[in-house]
Amino acid sequence: MTYDDDNIFARILRGEIPNDTVAQNDHALAFRDIRPQAPVHILVIPKGRYVSYDDFAANASDAEILGFNRLVAEVVRAEGIGLAEGGAGFRAITNAGAHGVQEVPHFHLHLLGGQPMGRMVSRD
Q: Which of 8, 38, 79, 84 sits 20 to 30 Å CA-CA off 114?
């Protein structure tokens, strides 16, 4: 999978498509999913051109990696789903490639919470 500059997240970052921004910093943007799968469903994306988590982890600068992860922590805290704040927890999901059922070729992390999330993968 190669990076596509016309993917929906690239277009959101360029301001071509509106979003419900939750938080952002110099390196990442967090916004509410338009088709939430839980009471809290937020996407966190880097502002750089990374296709997947492994691409981001291998090629992003230290500042980008730190900024992304700090924004995740800020969102979890602000949404009240973090354990440190007395929340009941959350699930963080990222998909990569065909087997991971990745739909958008821009690395993104789903933060889901506000209810029990059930099993991660079915045993079937």
A: 8
How do the domains of the chain map onto residue ranges? 8-113
Q: Tell me the C-alpha distance between 58 and 72, whole Å.
A: 19
Distance between CA atoms of residues 102 and 104, nearest Å = 6
- How far apart, in whole angstroms, are the C-alpha atoms of residue 117 and residue 91? 7
Global pTM reads: 0.95
List the catalytic residue out of 27, 41, 108, 110.
108
Q: Taking a C-beta distance cutoff of 8 angstroms, is the pair 64, 45 a contact? A: no
Query: For this structure, is 110 an active site residue?
Result: no
Angle at alpha carbon of residue 73, lines to 45 and 91, rounded to 5°? 75
Would you write out the chain's pLDDT as a tens digit for each of its 124 residues? 899 999 999 999 999 999 999 999 999 999 999 999 999 999 999 999 999 999 999 999 999 999 999 999 999 999 999 999 899 999 999 999 999 999 999 999 999 999 999 888 776 6
CA distance 124 to 83: 30
